Amino acid sequence: MANDTPAPVIVVDQLTARFGDNTIFERVSFQVNQGEILVILGGSGCGKSTLLKHLIGLYQPAAGKVLVNGVNINTNDERLLRQVRTGFGVLFQSGALFGSMTLAQNVSLPLYEYTDLDSDVVELIVKMKLGLVSLSGYENHLPSEISGGMKKRAGLARAMALDPTILFFDEPSAGLDPITSAELDILIKGINTGMGTTMVIVTHELESIFNIAHRVIMLDKSARGIIASGDPLELKEHSDDPRVLNFFNRRPATGFGQQVT
Question: What are the structural domains of the chain?
Answer without folding.
Answer: 8-87+164-248 (3.40.50.300)
